[in-house]
Design brief:
By secondary structure, this protein is an alpha/beta fold. The chain has 2 domains: about 325 residues, Up-down Bundle (ABC transporter transmembrane region fold); about 230 residues, P-loop containing nucleotide triphosphate hydrolases (Rossmann fold, 3-Layer(aba) Sandwich), CATH 3.40.50.300. It is built from 20 helices and 10 strands. A 6-stranded mixed beta sheet has the order 6-7-8-3-9-10, with helices on both faces. Strands 2-1-4-5 form a 4-stranded antiparallel beta sheet, covered by helices on one side. Helix 6 packs parallel to helix 10. The longest helix is centred in the first third of the chain and has 49 residues. The protein is elongated, with a radius of gyration of 35 Å. The two termini are about 65 Å apart. The C terminus is likely disordered. The structure holds adenosine-5'-triphosphate. The site of adenosine-5'-triphosphate has 12 residues, from helix 11. GO terms for molecular function: ATP binding. Its main location: membrane. InterPro entries: AAA+_ATPase (IPR003593), ABC1_TM_dom (IPR011527), ABC1_TM_sf (IPR036640), ABC_transporter-like_ATP-bd (IPR003439), ABC_transporter-like_CS (IPR017871), P-loop_NTPase (IPR027417), Type_1_exporter (IPR039421). It is a multi-pass membrane protein.
């Protein structure tokens, strides 16, 4: 239990000061609580001594008022401190996770699903946010307050003190056994919650497919299974905890009765005054209240601890960018030096050895699955090569910091992702300090100014998550405007013509030509015109460079490119 408390305290980071304050004020809360006990004692003394004056009643009333007001004020401050600590310690962790995810290989997103990461950032951290500081403060101040109360009881009567101590020790023993047992079931609950988030996310993302295949009602099998697993793991926790909770309750009730009985017996035997015996009855009701609230917090502590472990798993993923330098090369030629690359253990690119000279355009073509997208992704270090090296301006890309590497590159892919934000902010994504005029200029060059201006809120129009409220062609042109504004010297381009109507295709083409001027371009080409105009054509086949040259050099040479030209429109699996 102590190790989990330490872990939680360390997790709080900068918020430790608020937690410390909360515990400090928690001590005074207990002192004000003792005023209430004092008030009762005053009344009992007055009633049993026969000295029935208003003085005792007023004193008791004053003590009660001070006790209630003091606790109310302290409660208000500690609640604020705890909410602040909970919110900020988790907000900091969420920002840390976001930063971390930018620095890890994309392969992680294959192995760990989106749902797992979403689950950690939402439900898992929510548990820490809403319970972490409360649990920590309740346990620590609960212990301090119990000790203070016990010392007072010992001061009052050592025999009653011993009974109260025995009850407390028994209660803590049962609590600690329960806490250890819970270690075996709480991680399973975390896992089931992450699975549930994963299943729900997948269902929402695939909703259009579910609807189009009329699978409503059947498509939620994974969600149902995840719900069932979640229900079962929650019930397992309850089943495991219930007997211990009953034992906790019984032990405290037993010792309350023993304390009460002892007071009465001592009084009857003449070993205790009537007023002290009455006070003992009062003590029997109050003495365990603090330790009881500590006990309930302990059962939550394990859940919070295992949530922290779950969230900390993300820290253990090795980062890609630990040794990079900030480099801004003068030239932006890209060279692939005998590179091999596999996804897990499946070889995809084999001995690729080619250079893309500075400020030239290289078109990559090849059958679906030949490795075109993979080759492009390696330049931005979405993954690292297995062997060989990729250099930009003569320097291995692994020597760049991720920031300085990404400053050299703009990527425009077919699947454009736009954030649920204004169009202006989406265009400014690669250059957040750009002015409105610069945004408009980029949008004009990318042929999207007209359709943006026609929207009711123009550049301030908020687009749906992923660009849901725009057409495919509009999204692509916005992503080109984004790349134009960033003005990186290297453009990696998936020439997108699929699902774009002829009018949009012309506009897209114009936008692309504008973007490509004076840049080093690596383009997955789909249009014959683009391929013919390229300074260099790479033909990828089965992860190898099968042919390399200009259109003029390759068009009459026997080989894949010539076959491709001849049958380009009919050939299955080729994209044009
Ligand atoms: N993230 C990934 N994890 C594992 N395998 C992958 C991943 N991405 C692609 N692959 C596999 O690697 C191979 C090459 O894929 P890649 O997308 O690079 O081909 P491509 O030539 O761009 O195809 P297309 O023209 O259809 O877009 C394919 O067999 C694909 O299944």
């Amino acid at each position: 239990m102590i190790s989990v408390l330490k872990k939680l305290y360390q997790f709080a980071g900068e918020e430790q000061k608020n937690i410390k304050k909360s515990i400090f004020w928690g001590f005074f809360y207990a002192v004000f609580h003792m005023f209430q006990v004092g008030a009762i004692y005053f009344v009992i003394l007055a009633l049993t001594s026969g000295n029935k004056t208003y003085h005792a009643a007023w004193t008791a009333l004053l003590l009660l008022v001070v006790s209630i007001a003091g606790r109310a004020i302290i409660n208000r401050f500690t609640q604020l401190q705890q909410t602040h600590a909970g919110y900020f310690m988790v907000a900091n962790k969420r920002i840390e996770i976001g930063d971390k995810l930018k620095r890890i290989p994309m392969g992680y997103f294959n192995a760990k699903s989106l749902g797992e990461i979403t689950g950690i950032s939402t439900t898992v951290l929510d548990v820490v946010e809403s319970n972490g500081p409360v649990v920590l403060v309740n346990i620590l101040s609960g212990f301090i307050n119990s000790i203070v109360f016990l010392l007072c009881v010992f001061g009052f009567d050592w025999r009653i003190g011993l009974l109260a101590l025995a009850g407390t020790v028994l209660y803590l023993f049962i609590t600690s056994v329960m806490e250890k047992k819970s270690a075996s079931v709480t991680p399973r609950r975390q896992e089931s919650e992450a699975q549930l988030v994963d299943a729900v996310l997948e269902q929402i993302q695939g909703m259009s497919v579910i609807k189009s295949f009329n699978l409503t009602g059947k498509g939620d099998r994974r969600v149902r299974e995840a719900l069932e697993y979640n229900r079962k793991s929650n019930l397992d926790i309850e089943r495991l905890f219930t007997p211990y909770m009953v034992a906790q309750e019984l032990s405290l009730h037993l010792f309350s009765v023993l304390i009460m009985g002892a007071g009465i017996i001592f009084c009857l035997n003449g070993n205790m005054t009537l007023s002290d015996a009455l006070m003992t009855v009062v003590i029997s009701f109050l003495v365990f209240s603090q330790i009881q609230s500590t006990g309930s917090a302990v059962s939550l502590l394990r859940v919070v601890g295992s949530s922290i472990d779950h969230a900390d798993q993300i820290d253990e993923i090795p980062e890609m960018d630990s040794t990079g330098r900030t480099i801004y090369p003068k030239k932006h030629d890209i060279s692939f030096d005998h590179i091999d690359f596999s996804y897990d253990r499946r070889p995809i690119l084999k001995n690729v050895n080619v250079t893309i000279p500075d400020r030239t355009t290289t078109a990559i073509i090849g059958p679906s699955g030949s490795g075109k997208t993979t080759l492009c992704s390696l330049i931005a270090r979405f993954w690292d090569v297995d062997s060989g090296s990729i250099r930009i301006g003569g320097t291995d890309i692994r020597e760049y910091t991720l920031e300085s590497l990404m400053d050299q590159i703009s990527m425009v892919f077919q699947n454009v992702y736009l954030f649920a934000d204004t169009i202006e902010n989406n265009i400014k994504f690669g250059k957040p300090d750009a002015t409105h005029e610069q945004v408009v200029a980029a949008a004009k060059k990318a042929c999207c100014h007209d359709f943006i201006s026609a929207l009711p809120d123009g550049y301030d129009t908020v687009i749906g998550e992923g660009g849901a409220t725009l057409s495919g062609g509009e999204k692509q042109r916005i992503s080109i405007a984004r790349a134009m504004l960033k003005n990186a010297p290297i453009i990696i381009f998936d020439e997108a013509t699929a699902n774009v109507d002829p009018e949009n295709e012309d506009k897209l083409q114009k936008a692309m030509e504008e973007l490509m001027r004076d840049k080093t371009i690596l383009m997955i080409a789909h249009r014959l015109k683009t391929v013919q105009k390229a300074d260099q054509i790479l033909v990828l086949d089965g992860g190898r460079i099968a042919q390399k040259g200009t259109h003029e050099e390759l068009k009459d040479m026997p080989g894949i490119y010539r076959d491709f030209l001849e049958v380009r429109k009919e050939a299955a699996g080729w994209k044009l």
